[in-house]
Write a structure and sequence with these properties.
This protein is an all-alpha fold. The chain is built from three helices and no strands. It is a multi-pass membrane protein.
């Protein structure tokens, strides 16, 4: 499972970089979104996929011997929230640039 997710992460990073290298604003925003999702999957795979109990105490107040590490999951949630913020900013920027006449590509902003 980790091997397949690693391949998926690599493919998503490659697709995101490919879209970032285009001159179109819409593809630029899609590339940012795809790279953000690839990063979340990478953190998930790096945290190891295990089926263990949650790190909570039982009725007697004893912690389980083995439990899943909650730090990668917290990092993924944080990355997703930051990714949504970046996506909202990029879409707003895309809309503002789209309203400017005679601008279709990133290179047209230099004028």
């Amino acid at each position: 499972m980790e091997f397949l997710l690693s391949i998926l992460t690599g493919l998503l990073f490659a697709a995101g970089v490919y879209l970032l290298l285009h001159r179109d604003f819409a593809k630029l925003v899609m590339g940012i979104v795809i790279i953000g999702n690839a990063t979340a999957i990478f953190i998930f795979v790096a945290g190891r996929i295990v089926r263990k109990s949650a790190p909570f105490l039982d009725e007697q107040g004893v912690a389980p011997d083995t439990f899943a590490d909650p730090v990668p999951q917290a990092l993924i949630l944080t990355a997703l929230v930051i990714g949504f913020g970046i996506q909202a900013f990029a879409l707003l920027l895309f809309k503002k640039v789209y309203d400017i006449p005679d601008i279709e590509e990133v290179d047209d902003l230099k004028k």
